[in-house]
Amino acid sequence: MLLEDNVASLKSLTEVKDVQALLALNTTQTQPGLEKTVAYSREVYEIFTEIQGEVAKIVEAQFTDAQKAVTGAIEAASKNAPKGTEGVFTAVKSAFAASNSAYDNVTKLARQVSEIAESNLSAATNATVKAVGANATKAKKAA
Q1: Looking at the domain assignment, is residue 5 inside a domain?
Q2: What's the domain range around 52?
Q3: pLDDT tens-digit map of 51-108
């Protein structure tokens, strides 16, 4: 496919008669290459996004398991603790609950930032493709 594209480009280049036609050819040759590059970039981005999602699920599952283990350990220790230490375990439980809440908030924020970044990247990519397409259309009309 790439070889065929290059041969077609060279053939078109040999048929150029003036500067205006050369400029138009440059623009029309740029559009397909840009579209292929953008498509490839999107595919790579989607693969990385999918991998990131899978890794996040694994990490979240491991974190949930660790939370359960720590909560169980705190409960077991509080049951076997000497009298009068209930306040210490209440404080530890409260601190652990606060850290879990903070983790949840950071995780939600990270997801929102990721979604915003993905949306902005998609919008910028689409705008670039449209701009180059518009220039290619103008060049074709000028030729």
Answers
A1: no
A2: 18-142
A3: 988 998 999 899 999 999 999 998 898 888 888 888 898 899 999 899 999 988 998 9
Question: Does some domain include residue 87?
Answer: yes
CB 33 within 8 A of CB 9: no
Rounded to 5 degrees, φ, ψ at 83 are -60, 145
Instruction: State pTM to two decimals.
Output: 0.58
Report yes or no on 124 lying in a domain: yes
**Cα 51 from Cα 45, distance rounded (Å):** 10
Is 6 domain-assigned?
Answer: no
Higher model confidence: residue 94 or residue 3?
94
Residue 103 CA to residue 96 CA, distance in Å, equals 11
Domain count, the chain: 1
Given a contact cutoff of 8 angstroms between Cβ atoms, the answer to whether 139 and 19 are in contact is no
Are 135 and 16 in contact by the 8 Å Cβ rule? The answer is no
